[in-house]
Amino acid sequence: MDIAGQKSNSKMIFIRSAIVTAVLILLTIFALLPIWILIVNSTRDHFEIITNGVSLIPGLKMFKNIGQLNEWVEQGKIQYNALTGYVNSGFISLCATFLTVLFSTMTAYGLVVYDFKLRGAAYTFIIAVMMVPMQVTSVGFYKFMLNVNLTDTYFPLIIPAIAAPAIVFFMRQSMKSTFPLDIVEAARIDGCGEYRTFFQIGIPMMKPAIAVQSIFCFVGNWNNFYTPCMILISRKPEQLTLPMMVNTIYTNDKINDLGAKYVAIMLSIIPVVVVYFIFSRFIVEGVALGGVKE
Amino acid sequence: MNLNKRRSISYAKFGYLFILPFFIVYLFFQIYPLFYTFYLSSQSNGDLVTDSVGMDNFKIILSGQPTTTPGHEIAKRAAQSASKNFFRVLGNTCILWVGNFIPQIIISLLLAAWFTDAYLKVKGKGFYKIVMYMPNIITAASVAALFVMLFNDSEYGAVNNFLVKLGKEKVNFVAGIKGEARIMIMIIQTWMWFGNTTIMLMSGIMGINPSLFEAANIDGATPTQQFFRITIPLLRPILLYTVVTSMIGGLQMFDIPYLYNAQAGAQNITTETVAVYIYNNFHKTTAPNLGYSAAASVILFFITAALGAIAFVTNLEEDPRSAHAKGRNKTALKIKLGGA
Q: CB–CB of B267/B261 below 8 Å?
């Protein structure tokens, strides 16, 4: 290639790169702007917000807003209590994540390590039901829970987590490609029982996949609005999860301090955002692996 | 030989034991509720009556015929309000899905192509990916709350406040039934999902043999030509997979359409999706319409099953990347043959 051609080519690349960077910056702004306005408005008080709704410069009134929020909580005006929400959502999410990850790994291990008659059928079944939407079974699930008096308890939110087809599918895929079956044979020769092999060899070797799935499970459960809403029918304040609390606050007409409302929303997303930025690399890689199925 | 055989039999037992908890729980909390939903779809609505009504629930939500079962005033009124609802909410769901999927796939395809283009000099790709995926991970309830606060119909909403300042008319972004609320939901959904789709498509593009792009580059193909002649055709299996999974996800769209409302309980009729319809019908505190809800669920089940079957037939269910690899070989072969 002659020098002139090379020059024009590199010029082209430069121009293209500039355009691409500009579009990327625009999309970054698109992705971040709502969150930024949320942060800004949660630091401004009611009057600042009604005189000027959109501002990009944070104010200094965040603690005043939090104070207002606490006052309403004490007066019993709202059912939003960020700390209770953290504890409730955290408890449900931790339990559900633990069960999902443990039993999904176990199921996948069973499907990969052992050869049994119904193995193919079991795997086909798991794939087939992977995409059945929650909504399809929810009427029956709700009525069933009503019949056995389990509404207004956390059991229906935690126990079903044991059966998570999408996670089993993912675990099986990653076990197939990374787990050496010889090691199970070796453990057997050394006299190691099957369960012990699973807990002491299987699980430690699956740690990376378990870590990725744990993050997704935890966030998924934390964000879940549909199931808690369906099950916790009495809406007892001490039982509400964080998303349900958020729902009670912005639809509440009795309270009219915009700053406090914004701060309530902000408090509800802080844990997720913090978790996200700690694990972002993991998460983005996990998505690329097709690990999330919402 | 004998020993071996005995061994394999005894290990098979462990296979069943390991997968047993999953299947027991699945049976109780998914299979049984599924059949129960089918059963409930043939039962009457309301608090008081539990009679079998045959296919009436389906007839009512699909055709709008008034109820034939004699009985309760409440049940009759419920039937009137439920009639012909299903097609309306299915229509809403489709419109909302199409309206969020098209911008999302365009943005995501462009971004994925750019992020994987080795010739572009763009810094901080990792940063962009992390930022663009972030909206997907934030609690949908909080996202809806935030957007309702920002786009509130009153002048207290940040955007309407801004519009009034500029001397413009307020817009009913939330309660509007002329499409304003729909457009807002499409924007929110796009905002939440474009990062996710980008990353999925990127992993697809990275599976394409890089020498194809190199060869195209040497032959002087422009980036646009490369995008339409190499990336898109080779990405087709993954694209199809993305469309089908997004469609199934779209049918379940609940959080944003349900929560993006100014007042709780008063659903904007232009943004009521199938999932919202199901939920609203069975979750009423007085006279819950379990029958209509269940009937809608059953229809939703068959639609999803049909879509799932499409995914299965195109052999994408197994593993999108292996199907993709197959597609790649085929196309690579075609390119070779065409070149020769």
A: yes
Asked if the structure places residue A252 within a domain, the reply is yes
This model of the complex carries an ipTM of: 0.88
**Mean pLDDT for each consecutive 10-residue tract of chain A (294 residues)?**
58 86 92 91 85 79 84 81 92 96 95 91 89 86 91 93 92 88 89 90 90 90 92 89 88 79 90 89 77 40
A1 touches B at CB < 8 Å: no
Residue numbers of B between 109 and 148 with CB closer than 8 Å to A: 110-111, 114, 119-123, 126, 128-135, 137-143, 145-148
Our count of domains for chain A comes to 2
Handedness of CA A85, A86, A91, A95 (dihedral sign): positive
Q: Per the CB < 8 Å rule, is B139 touching A268?
A: yes
Long-range contacts of B271-274 (CB under 8 A, 24+ apart): B271/B92, B271/B96, B271/B181, B271/B182, B271/B185, B272/B88, B272/B89, B272/B92, B273/B89, B273/B92, B273/B93, B273/B96, B274/A135, B274/B86, B274/B89, B274/B90, B274/B93, B274/B300
Task: Kindly report the CATH number assigned to the domain that includes residue A141.
Answer: 1.10.3720.10
Q: At what angle do helices A3-42 and B125-137 cross, to 10 degrees?
A: 30
Residue A76 lies in a domain: no
Strand partners, B43: B52
B22 with A103: Cβ contact below 8 A:
yes
Asked, for residue A123, whether it belongs to a domain, the answer is yes
pLDDT digits (tens, 9 = 90+) for B254-299: 989 988 875 555 778 888 889 988 888 888 766 778 888 889 999 9
Averaged over successive runs of 10 residues, the pLDDT of chain B (340 residues) comes to 50 90 94 92 70 76 62 58 76 93 94 86 86 91 90 83 85 84 93 91 86 88 88 86 86 89 70 88 77 90 87 56 42 32
In a domain, A17, yes or no: yes
Distance from CA of A87 to the nearest CA of B (A): 16
Calculate helix-pair angle for B85-116, B180-206, nearest 10 degrees: 40
B170 DSSP assignment = P
Tokens of A210: 């378990």
Domain boundary among A15, A40, A68: A68
CA of B69, closest CA in chain A: separation in Å? Answer: 22
Q: Which amino acid is at A56?
A: L
Domains, in order of start, for chain B: 84-336 (1.10.3720.10)
| Contacts of residue A254, Cβ cutoff 8 Å, sequence gap at least 6 | A77
Question: To 10 degrees, the CA torsion angle through B275, B276, B282, B287?
Answer: -150
From residue A44, give the alpha-carbon distance in Å to each of A102, B185, B193, B252, B306.
Answer: 45, 27, 30, 37, 51
State the count of interchain CB pairs (< 8 A) between A and B.
Answer: 314
Structural domain that includes position A48: 2-68
Listed residues A68, A98, A122: the one ending a domain? A68
Between positions 48 and 67 of A, the ones with CB within 8 A of B are 49-50, 52-54
**8 A C-beta contact, residue B149 and residue A250:** yes
Q: Which two tokens stand for residue A38?
A: 């949320």
Quickly count: other Cβ atoms within 10 Å of residue B222's Cβ. Answer: 12
Residue B274 to residue A172: CA distance in whole angstroms: 33
Query: Which chain B positions have a beta carbon within 8 Å of A134's beta carbon?
Result: 252
